[in-house]
């Protein structure tokens, strides 16, 4: 757990300096790797959420997910500022950055855990962080399109995947749900927005 605050501090320090100067391709790859690691941490937390999880775990995990999403949003926003201050990369410089986009983890695990969180009325806080996360990912995508003009098609493809992933999660977590007295055999009933 100590790693997360230290890594955030290091990244903030790097991007406070980077905002004043253009980023190098290696720095962009490193930051995309850091974002992939943070999103992987969210998936790790979510893997501990099961139908057998106790009340304490079900209370702590959503708070951790929300905190981690807020960390990711802050990281992305700082990164976008630095990327926007960087002139476009050549095709050779863009290649490793383009390859690193595939490492960013999507939200299928979060979508899959919806019924557990819905059963215990824990979806609202998660839903409230998905909107700003989607907005930050979209800003990052547009900044990367400007940074990697020769890889625009691939960045557009990644942007579409990010958008579809966050839209699926938002759709699920924005639903109104009625807990099931027969849970986990019968899932909560959810619908509408």
Description of the molecule:
This protein has one domain (3-191). It has a two-stranded antiparallel ribbon. The chain is 71% helix and 3% strand. It is mainly α. The chain has helices at residues 3-18, 25-47, 55-84, 91-100, 108-112, 114-119, 123-147, 152-173; strands spanning 176-178, 189-191. Helix 1 (3-18) packs parallel to helix 3, helix 2 runs parallel beside helix 4 (91-100) and helix 7 packs antiparallel against helix 8.
Brief descriptors of the model:
signal; Cell wall galactomannoprotein; 193 residues; mainly alpha; 3% strand
Q: What shape does the CA trace take?
A: elongated
Strand order of the largest sheet: 1-2
- Annotation, overall tally of beta strands: 2
Largest sheet: 2 strands, antiparallel
Low-confidence stretches: none
Count helical runs.
Answer: 8
The string of secondary-structure elements, in order, is HHHHHHHHEE
Q: How much of the polypeptide forms β-strand, as a percent range?
A: under 5%
Q: Mean pLDDT, nearest integer?
A: 86
Radius of gyration: 18 Å
Number of domains: 1
Cα-to-Cα separation, first versus last residue: 35 Å
